[in-house]
Amino acid sequence: MRNFKQVIFLLGIFLLLLNIYGLFKTLRNPEIYTERNTWFLSDITLKYPEIKNEFIRRENESDKDFAIRANKNVHDGILHYWEDEGLAKYHLTVPPWDNYLLYVARYIDPKIYRKYEFSNYKKNLERGIGLCSTHSIILKGILNNNGIDADLLDLRHHVVLRTKLDKNEWWILDPDYGVVVPFDTAAVRADPKIILTSYKDMNSLYKPEIKEHYTPKYLAELYGGDGNRIYSVDNWFEYFSYWAIWIIPFLLMLPYYIQLFRRNKYNISDYAQNNHITSTVT
User: Fold this and answer.
1) Which positions ≥6 away from 153 have C-beta within 8 Å?
2) Could you give the percent of the chain with pLDDT greater than 90?
3) Tell me: the pLDDT tens digits for 136-156?
4) What pairs with residue 174 in β-bridges?
5) 102 with 110: CB under 8 angstroms?
6) In DSSP terms, which residues pair with 181 in a beta bridge?
7) Which residue in 64, 65, 25, 32 sits closest to 46, CA to CA?
8) How many Å apart are CA 51 and CA 41, to the nearest integer?
9) Whole-model pTM?
10) Based on CB atoms within 10 Å of each CB, which residue in 11, 92, 143, 238 is the most buried?
11) pLDDT band at 2 (very low <50, low <70, confident <90, very high)
12) CB-based contacts of 12: which residues, under 8 Å, 6+ apart?
């Protein structure tokens, strides 16, 4: 039993040191700025952590102006990339030094955790890489933090934001393409072709060698299709795990500390008793 307590004590020390090491690491690999295996010509131009300054609201900036500016900054600051080659290189699998519970979860539920999209938008922003849903999660978090209502809108094969930009005015923001659709979902469902003007330049974003990609016509079909829905991304286990990774090491170390405390307590008691007996005899 004593050896077992020592083993889990050492494990607790190791996990604690791993967490501390992670405090000095970042999920963003600078190589994303030179990554060539991408769809877009100029996919990422804003760097981290400088990009965080772009999400500070300017004096007297309206909800609409801030949201449109943030939409463009997310487009310019997040790499559209989700390839298997980035599992370790770009931390698509959460590394153990960032969260060893999410790392272990990849073996339990690889469908979710092998390539993991964070619920916490700040973690996605730090990593700086993802697909349309990642871009939208980041923008939603930024807008919500600035008191602007925004919901994730799933178009089945593409994710955008339905955003309240004025008292009774809702627009659709697409941070993956950096596009603003100045209509609400009801108007778009009634006439999907009204999005074509907003997406008219999207084909020019792609590299010439990318032959099969989304087009304005295809997106109009998605906007007008059945099954589009508002949804949320909130993985309770993710939020829990970032607390648990600090609590678990101390729980592992606790039995050995208790054993040492009891041993010292008994030693002190025996010492006092022996001194008392010696004094009495004398």
Assistant:
1) 159, 160, 161, 162, 172, 185, 228, 229, 230
2) 78
3) 999 999 999 999 999 999 998
4) 179
5) no
6) 172
7) 32
8) 20
9) 0.90
10) 143
11) low
12) 248, 249, 250, 251, 252, 253
